Each structure stands twice: as structure tokens, then as C-alpha cells.
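Handout, section B. The chain below has 101 residues.
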Amino acid sequence: MDHPLFDLIDQRIRDAQAAGEFDDLPGAGKPLPRVDDPENELINRLVRDSHAVPEFVSLSRQLRLLREELAATGDRTRRRDIMKDMSLMEARIAMARKAYR
């Protein structure tokens, strides 16, 4: 069974075609660019356009900040807490890298 909006969408497309809204679009008449993974191209493009990164990359950035904080602090208790957080972060990075493969 079709979704009720399909007819509305089709009608709007036909109206736009009749009004010439699709005329003279950039790349008209040229082949579409070749993609390596056509099934996931939309998702890949959205990820690329939003500058998203794999989880292990964002975790690595957080780890770098922890290292900077560790270097900047002299408080022994805080240093111990930071090192504990760094250890957990390194384990999370390892798991994220494994899941990414």
C-alpha cells in the first residue's frame, strides 16, 4: 500500500516540471558522478557534509584534552583522576576502533 503523501509528492513534481523549475539545472545532461558505495551514498554524503567523524576520532580528541589538562595541573589528586579518565578513554578508543573495522 502506498503512503498517502506519494500522490501529493508526484503531483508537486509534475507541477514543477510543467513550470520549468527543473530546466537548466547545473550538470543537466551529464552523467551522475560515480560512487563507490551506491547503497549508502546518501548517508555517506550526509556524514561528509556535516563533518562527522568516527567515534574513535572524537574520543582521541577528548584524550588529547585530558593529556593537556594533566600536563597543566600540579594537584596530585586531580592528576590521579585524570590518569584514571585517560585509561578509561584509551579503552573506549580501542573498542571504538575495533567496532569501526
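Note. The radius of gyration is 25 Å. Compare this with the example in section A.
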